[in-house]
Structure formats: C-alpha cells, structure tokens
Amino acid sequence: MHRLLIAVALLPAAAPAQEPKGRLTATGLSGELKAGEERDFVVAAGVKMRFCWIPAGEAKLGSPAGEDKREVNEIRHTLETPGFWLGKYEVSQAEWEALTGKAPSRFPGAGLPAESVSWDDAQALVKKCKVTGLKVRLPTEDEWEYACRGGTGNEKPFYWGAEANGDQDNVDGSFPYGTTIRGQNVGQTMDVGAYAKTAPHPWGLCDMHGNVREWCENLFVRAGTDRAARGGSWHLPARYSRAAYRTRLEQTATANDLGVRLALIP
C-alpha cells in the first residue's frame, strides 16, 4: 500500500509551502491563475492545506442518455463558474484531528482520509477554518462535478475515460465498469493521493472517483432535508464512482467511506 507522509504542517516535506504570486485581496487571489495551479493556504493556526485552482468556465454536467448504469437524477445541465479553489486531497485524518481535536475514523492513519463524519461534522470543521479574502465551505455538487471532470466534458463517466476497475482509483474492482477485467479491491481506505501517478487528473486533483464519498454543501433536492455526496468509495462497485453519480444521505449520517474535501470561494 502506498503511504503519503503528512507532517504537522500537513504537507509532504518535498513540497514546501510557496507564496502566492498574486496579491490576496477581499475577492481572492489576484493575478492570472492557470487551471490546476496549486497553492498552499493556512486554514487555521498551524494547519496548512494544498488547493488546486479550478478555472472559470462553462460546462455541461450530468450524464448523457446513453451512459451505462445512468440514474434518472443525473440530469444534464450547464454550470458557469468564475473559478474557485478545491482541495487537492480529501481532508486527511491528521488535518481533521489538528482542526477539531477529534479522531472519528474507523481506519486509523494520519495520511488516510477522515471518514465516519456527518455533514454536520463537516460544517463544524469548516467553522474552524478561515482564509483571508476567501470563503471556506464544502463544494456544491455542480462545483464538485465540474472539477472532477477536469475540462474533459461529460460524454465519458470518468475523467480518464469510460472504464474503471479499481486500478485507477480506490473502488471495489471486483465489480468493474465498462470492462470485464477485474481490478484491485483493497478493502479499506488508502492514503490521500495514492493514485496521483496512476491516473493523473487534468487539474491536479486526487481521489475524485474513489477512496471515500465526499459531502457536498447543497441539499439533494430543494424541497428536502437530505444532503448530497459525490464520488465513489473503497467498498462500492465502480458504477457508483462515475462523475455524474449522486448519493443522497441524511445530514447526520456517518459511514467509514464518507469524508470531505474543502473549497475556497473568491
């Protein structure tokens, strides 16, 4: 199993913090930003996280009518965004404990993603964070999917193509999608970023299709009370890791494959 070392500063020693090239203002980081550009932001005293710039743009989301295993709620629509920052990694256990003083995860490990956390727990985490000139929150479903697809459009279920079997991200490869070839079934979470080189994301993000499902900011439906989550997980078949797949959960729900990723909004 790959291991990602996360120090107290919560970043690999080989990737020291860099000062932003632009000027941090009330509306965010000024200056020209490239898609996938990475920055380290201090989100609380002694806690630093790495974020990728998700560029401004307009894109179609949801799944096409012919996509295998398509769900009826994966409605095609258009998102227009001015751009935002999204965590390169799912929030790790080291980061979660540093921010909250709690260790809720059922698979212990500093570099593993924090899991067994509810939407309410995620909101409490967000309240512990502050970045000058930027709003800290969970990504909405549309922001999450736009970022996940990485500018590749929505004609394929994954940013790397049309097949998944656990070799590209941490899902149950015993139940592959788009192929009959079975892949890995690790049986638990893996260190955040473990598949970064196996299936590189166009904008530098990691674990968007697997490891743990990720809470989103919005309600699943406007008239309801349940919250949405996105992404696949270590114990779910590959079909549930498609970019357009939506998960519906009570906001108090917890599971050992349910975590969080932070967004910074200008």
Write the CATH fold name. Answer: paralog of FGE (formylglycine-generating enzyme)
Strand order of the largest sheet: 3-4-7-13-8
In the CATH hierarchy, what is the architecture at level 2? Alpha-Beta Complex
The main sheet comes to: 5 strands, antiparallel
Percent strand equals 15-25%
Number of domains: 1
Shape: globular
CATH superfamily heading: paralog of FGE (formylglycine-generating enzyme)
* Class by SSE composition: mainly beta
Oligomer: single chain
In short:
With 266 residues, the protein is mainly beta. It has one domain: paralog of FGE (formylglycine-generating enzyme).
Task: Outline the structure in words.
It is a single chain. The protein contains 3 helices and 13 strands. With 266 residues, it is mainly β. It has a single domain (24-265), classed as Alpha-Beta Complex (paralog of FGE (formylglycine-generating enzyme)). Strands 3-4-7-13-8 form a 5-stranded antiparallel beta sheet. It has a 4-stranded mixed beta sheet with strand order 11-10-9-12, with helices on one face. The longest helix has 9 residues, at 119-127. The termini are far apart. Mean pLDDT is 91; it is low at 1-28.
